[in-house]
Amino acid sequence: MKVAIAAVLMAGALLCLSVGTAWAETAWVDEINSSLSFTMANYPNANWEPYQQKLNKVHDAVSRGDGQAVRMEMGKWFRMLRHRDFGISDVAADELYNFSLMVTPIQEYGIAVPAGPAGLGDTSY
After folding, report:
1. What's the CA gap between 78 and 125, in Å, rounded?
2. Would you say 81 and 96 are in contact if contact means Cβ atoms under 8 Å apart?
3. With bands split at pLDDT 50, 70 and 90, how would you rate the model's confidence at 116?
4. CA nearest to 47, candidates 100, 92, 114, 113
5. Global model pTM greater than 0.70
6. What phi and psi values does residue 98 have, to the nearest 5 degrees?
């Protein structure tokens, strides 16, 4: 009986650990998504849908452990913000860009972050 109880407890602990690890892996994307929601509410006169779609792709890639897709999609995310694509304001773009820089594990994924002044963006993301 003690062995069965120990086995059940061990299985439960392993399940909690794996669920907790999966949540922790996507937590940074969820933080950016929360920041995006806040920004959308404060700057409603822009097309935010492509930004939401991009973060959904990143979240899915992180969930399935696809580091290459995370690197590619987050690179696009940063370029969209840097270029102020889809009619977002300079202030909104800078807020999201700076927050994303703080929470994204850039080195872990090898994400290329564009620097320099904003310019006209290519909306073919």
Report:
1. 11
2. yes
3. low
4. 92
5. yes
6. -65, -40
